[in-house]
Amino acid sequence: MIKNVYLQGSAKEIGFGHGSQGKQEIINSLETYEKLFYGFKKMRWSEAREYALLHLKAIEQYDLQMVEEMEGIAEGAGVDFEDILTLNARSEIALTNQGELLADGCTTMAITSPISKDTIIGQTWDWTPSQKRSLLLLHIQAESKPRMTMVTEGGLIGKIGYNSAGVALCFNALLTNKRTNEIPLHLGARAVLNSYSQAEAIAKIANGQIAAAASFLIGYDDGSGNGMAVNPEISPFGIDYVGGDEGWLTHTNHICSARLNNKLKDLNDFRFEDSILRKKRADQLIKTSLAVGEPINEKVFERWLSDTFNKPSSIHHFQNKNVPEHRRAETIFSIIINVTNRRALLRIGQEGEFKEIDSFRE
Where would I find the Peptidase C45 hydrolase domain in this sequence (predicted)? Predict the structure, then answer.
């Protein structure tokens, strides 16, 4: 189960609704990350808050409404603004800097023209099991923004979802050695979902505006049957598109761009036996479906995202008790977004069925 939260109004009002209705999920997030930061990076929460505050000036210049929304969340949940800011900068804290790195994982896949008339993107999100209790399904109608639906962790204002303008986002974490004090990744994700086109979305994450590295898979359909999916790897050194020339895309948790590999050190110690194998398996699944002429739709995506080949390090991920604790991730949720039809299917956890969520259809 996941809590649905419907929000509208000003940035402050949207934040307050998120904070008040999702208070327990936010508390769960705070408890999870306080434990993770200290357990694996020997960083106390007060130190993490100091790191997060380094981003505040850039966020204020980038989009002041994001600050107002985080203020509203803090007020609604009865916590400090710095706590919410730290949650939204958790990737910059967890995926870079000193100490052991927390390995946030997932597998993303996309199909678009010329393979399919529909642009469909989807992913698993693999992470520490305790964060299943922190999930929220936010339905947001902000002033002068497209309507959006987003699966997120309590307190985070940007993550994975889609909007009524036909822009959709899936997300892969990348573990690297460099970050800046620019815009945290999850706020970049929210900027994408605030966009009316793919071009607008890219403009908000290009040119070194984002503080750390990640893979953003962005699907777009203009409402006239014209769709496309692109996969920019983003970084403090700009972006680089990877894959997609044949109408399909996959990504996991290692850098694929040769240009970014020259700028960043990939610190994913498990890329060869986990991330790269998951990507090769995702590639294989798509190529197999294409080879046999199988029509690709949401049901096919369900099968792909449920794949357990190489279990536990499979696309549908399970905990591996033989690896360090910070790598004991499992699939927390899986999502399939038909961008063309403005509909999505969601499965929470490792069991059960995909169920349709708010589709924006009139």
Answer: 118-351
pLDDT tens-digit map of 257-273: 999 999 999 988 888 88
- Comparing C-alpha atoms, which of 255, 261, 258, 253 is closest to residue 282? 253
Q: What's the predicted TM-score (pTM) here?
A: 0.96
Q: Kindly state whether residue 86 falls inside one of the protein's structural domains.
A: no
CB 10 within 8 A of CB 66: no
When the pLDDT of each residue in the chain is averaged and rounded to a whole number, the result is 93
DSSP 78: T
DSSP of 313-329, one letter per residue? Answer: SSSS----TTS-GGG--
Alpha carbon distance 341, 321 (integer Å)? 40
CA distances from 264 to 95, 217, 235 (A): 13, 20, 9
64 located within any domain? no
pLDDT digit string (tens) for 93-137?
A: 877 655 555 555 799 999 999 999 999 999 999 999 989 999 999
Nearest Cα neighbor of 242 from 110, 124, 117, 339 is 110
CATH number (domain holding residue 175) = 3.60.60.10
